[in-house]
Amino acid sequence: MAKQFAIEKYVEQKNAWSKIFGQQPLSLANARDAQKIAEMLDSDLSPENLSCDGEVRGQALQTKRNFLVRAASELKALYPQVKMYEAEGWL
């Protein structure tokens, strides 16, 4: 079984939520979607969202942050031109 990259898993999770709300899925093959994904990662990496307003702490917070940073790094490797602000401090 092939290893799934963090960015693929992240997009898969976002697309599952999008489907519930009748939104179009995002694709890593599309540069416009890549920027939308970058903006989502930035939002998820903001301190308030990352810690769920302080509800997530310790190892769970580190695991969540590491996953999001890994996904941001992989996205940046695929699309160096995407703009990320919160993520830049972690990359």
Describe the model:
The chain has 91 residues and is mainly α. The protein has a domain at 28-89. It is 60% helix and 0% strand. It has 4 helices and no strands. The longest helix has 21 residues, at 58-78.
Properties at a glance:
mainly alpha
In short:
The protein is mainly α and 91 residues long. It contains four helices and no strands.
Number of strands: 0
The mean pLDDT is: 92
Sheet/helix structural class: mainly alpha
SS element count, helices:
4
Radius of gyration (CA) equals 13 Å
Order of helices and strands: HHHH
The low-confidence parts are none
Instruction: Report the biggest beta sheet as strand number plus sense, adding barrel if it closes.
Output: none
Q: Approximately what portion of the residues adopt beta-strand conformation?
A: under 5%
Straight-line distance between termini: 28 Å
Global shape: globular
Helix content estimate:
55-70%
Topology (SSEs and partners):
Layout: H1 6-20, H2 31-45, H3 47-50, H4 58-78
